[in-house]
Design goal:
Blueprint (H helix, E strand, L loop, with lengths): L1 H17 L15 H7 L6 H6 L4 H13 L6 H15 L5 E2 L5 H8 L3 H14 L16 H7 L3 E2 L1
Parallel strand pairs: 1-2
Length: about 160
């Protein structure tokens, strides 16, 4: 019996891995290169961390080259697709994709409090995607002045 108790958690963990945890690849904004980023990057890197960076294309190029030096593999076309995707979605002037943004991104880039992040995520799950920034005004508990001030940093 003791052995079964020890084996069951290991078996469940193996099943979860076999089910294909996508490393939150679903949190990546749609666009050209998303599938390649999910394939090449998400196995080792958190999407949350990726999404909080806002760096130039040159800086993304350095990061991608560093990852290739460390063992990331892909064709030249795939590596270029990754670079273009990251620069387009998480470049210096990139906006926050509010329909997929994880809490850490909303906190880091928009200054949302934990309760506000929780409210946005819960509202999004219950009501579907936002169409424009003013849809966020329907979310209970959000600071309307902060939303208005940050609306140009959001994308839908």
């Amino acid at each position: 019996m003791e052995r079964a108790v020890l084996i069951l958690p290991v078996a469940f963990a193996a099943l979860a891995l076999a089910a294909g945890d996508d490393g939150n690849a679903g949190l990546l904004p749609d666009g050209p290169g998303k599938e390649v980023v999910a394939k090449m990057c998400v196995e080792c890197h958190s999407v949350d961390r990726m999404r909080t960076l806002r760096i130039s294309k040159d800086d993304w190029s350095d990061k991608v080259a560093d990852m290739v030096d460390r063992g990331a593999t892909g064709t030249d076309a795939e590596i270029e697709a990754v670079l273009n995707y990251l620069a387009a979605n998480f470049g210096k002037d990139s906006k926050v994709w509010m329909n997929t943004a994880p809490g850490i991104e909303m906190k880091a880039l928009l200054g949302f409090k934990v309760a506000e992040v929780d409210a946005v995520v819960a509202y999004r799950k219950a009501n579907g995607n936002f169409k424009e920034w003013s849809d966020l005004l329907k979310v209970p508990g959000l600071d309307q002045k902060n939303l208005e001030a940050k609306k140009d940093l959001m994308q839908f």
